[in-house]
Amino acid sequence: MTLTAAHPAAPTAPAPTRRRTWGRMSGRWPLVALLAVVSILTVSPFAVMLVLALSPPRAPTVPHQWPDALTLDNIVSTLTAAGFVSWTVNSLIYAGVSVVVILLTASMAGYAFAKKRFPGRDALMWAFLATMMVPFQATLIPLFVLVSSLDGVDTFWGMIVPTLANSQAVFLMRQFIRDLPDELFEAARIDGASEWRIFCQIVLPLTRPILATLGVFVFLWHWNDFLWPLVVAQSEELRTLTVGLTSLRGEEYPLAMVMASAAVSVVPCLVVFFLLQRYLVNSIASTGFK
Amino acid sequence: MRHRLRDPVAGLLFVLPMLVLFLIFRFVPAFGAAGMSLTDYKISGEWTFTGVDNYARLLRDPIFLGSLRVTVVYVAIYVPLTVVVALGTALLLNSVIFLKGLFRGMLFLPYVTSFVFAGIIWRWIYDFDGLLNGLLGYLDLGPVGFLDDTALVLPSLAVVQVWKGFGYSMLILLAGLKAIPESYLEAARVDGASAWQRFRLIVLPLLRPALFFVLVIETIGAFQTFDMIYVMTGGGPSRASFNLIYALYDQGFKFFDLGYAATIGVVLFLLVFVVSMIQRRFIDRSAA
Description:
Chain A is 70% helix and 0% strand. By secondary structure, chain A is an all-alpha fold. Chain A folds into two domains: 44 residues; 213 residues, MetI-like (MetI-like fold). The longest helix of chain A is centred in the N-terminal third of the chain and has 37 residues.
């Protein structure tokens, strides 16, 4: 990767305006071309997957040959396969419940950290943030032991509840709510509004854009999560989509079927991406949210 | 009086649900990991205090030491690769206006997918009957065992993680680039600085905070790689991609040696901690 070429120079010597403009443009076209090539290469695995998913199931295993005809058969059989449907439902529950609960609890905690004075507030916020330093996998074993001692292994709550303690979500909500003017809350209080009412009628409506962003992230984290569902949801009935997909191996699963399943599994991520790309991009750029 | 108490009480009540979740599911396991690493905790729940036996065992365990080597080599391959790709694409995006939004979207797209998804597609791309070997075949080259060669497996996996994740670091660096005032670059241009000089003397120093953030995030991410390896190689061939997390998973959920697995978790934490400290120091010093 040539870094010099990537930061293009306008002509350094003063030149007639027309030539200079043309020079700038012509100087940039190679960059546009390079960017186009890199971008197309980046999305090409999606295209490859789609072609395979739409190939006849019994296609020869020399898949770099373009199939003679495309078919929706694999997609249809994926959508009607009992296993796949149940994995999808489980993933929807895992992600859906987490989104609702995390949005509520994180905005409540974020509001308290941002606007309330209570003993131990700063120490507590610091402790929340410190947990970000501990990788999830480092606590995987004790967490599993804990959940299993609470009889949570192979249950929905055992899979979902431990993932609700999310310091990133609290931190994001706190940063956003802190910037809301204090006068709003004072005015509501003087009018006699209860704390819960202030939260529901002032905090929640005013944080809608950041709630949308956080909701998207929480959805993607859970929809794409793998290790925790793998160890905690061991029975077939609780399997999520990511865990289920890894079990599609061997002779009885033609490549076209595996690719069709992968293609269907990524649809919610793509929908989220196309609808809310701007939110995702902005929040990553401004807060480093991952 | 009632009014004075209102704020603290409401604050504590609002923070309570998340606090309970944190106490039980973050703090207890974090301290539990340290505690368990000093025991021979078994899946049955029986345990005895064994002091630092687990740590001594790690130092003599060739499989663990191998996984440590794999992890370090993987970090050394992945981090520079992903930073270069992210920085290169960020610089390209920053200097192009034509279709910029479209390109940014295309480059960012893989980030919203899962590592399992990435692994399934790339498993086939790397396959002996797959896309890359098909293309190499046209050139009368190969076949290459991208995932079956002990020397190639880690670079091959690193490419997949770069593909899946570089869009995130690209956005961070792009935001950093946008924050550099155009007037600085213009002034350097007037003074006759070449593109390389402007990049090295103006862009790079001003980009340092963003670069530091990306380095730390990507290094930590590389230490934690698991899903993709599980899908693509299962740790093979001959443990050539068997990393720290895989060792932890194996000890915990294949051999049910939970105390020992928790010890590997503690090592992971220490590694991540030390690396972030070293990187912080290194960047601070070079900034001075």
